[in-house]
Design a protein that fits this description.
Layout (H helix, E strand, L loop, with lengths): L1 E6 L3 E7 L4 E8 L8 H11 L10 E6 L5 H14 L4 E6 H9 L5 E6 L3 E6 L12 H4 L5 H13 L5 H11 L3 H9 L4 H6 L3 H5 L4 H19 L11 E4 L1 H5 L1 H10 L4 E5 L3 H15 L2
Parallel strand pairs: 1-4, 4-5, 6-8, 8-9
Antiparallel strand pairs: 1-2, 2-3, 6-7
Length: 286
Amino acid sequence: MILIADSGSTKTEWALLNTQNAKILGQSPGINPYQQAQAEIEEVLRQTLRLEEKDNIEYLYFYGTGCALLPNQMLVKKALQAVFQHAKIEVSHDLLGTVRSMCGHEAGIAAILGTGANACRYNGKEITSPESSLGYVLGDEGSGAYLGKKLVTAFLRAEMPQDLQTLFSEKFNLNRATVLEAVYQKPYPNRYLASFSPFLREQIEQPYIIQLLKEAFTAFIEKCILTLPGFQLSLPLFFTGSIAWHYQKILHEVAHDKNLIIKEIVQNPMEGLIQYHQKLLTQNHA
């Protein structure tokens, strides 16, 4: 029996599978080794993921944000091993989960636009480009955190059109002190900033909102995709993540303006990961 996890900063999707069937288990809070210690990750797992089959899990494949570097992988692996004591555990970057889900064993470019943002080039076996993300403070152009930061900054500086300024104020009841406290003193500021991004969806017909999204997606493509080593227009381009999914019409338009064609956009990569691992499982048992 195999357990698969696809984890972003906000949520983690879980699925359980064997050679015959698969079951999506639902969500738990996101896991990010840059923001959580081992003990905190263990507590999240114990409190939110209760599996009767826990002791029957042979392999656990965890694909997570912040897991590109070995020390972070080891931190998450130790937390998982404390909960799933009988499983063989593999911890990998969430980008690897994305390319396995969407590209399978074919070459391509995969991008994530969720709470955070990232992109990579894949040769069908492994990621062949360095990580493009610098996180929500230094980068993450186009992400939920980036868009939320743009909205909140524009609101605090009264740079929005007056009608949007009023709507934003009525919806969130913010002031400078509460925002600065949440961003600079409370945990998970990236989640906090990303929580404002649904406002974009509610006001998607507003020219100001459309322009904000276009500028954010343009910045992501220019900084994180067109600069990938070995980038080629002929490679298929895939997107996953809630931001890519909800604003895909504008994302397609921006990509087209850059002579890119997006082959597919999915909200999350779990279905593709299930297919990828079931295929391997079937081959190994053949």
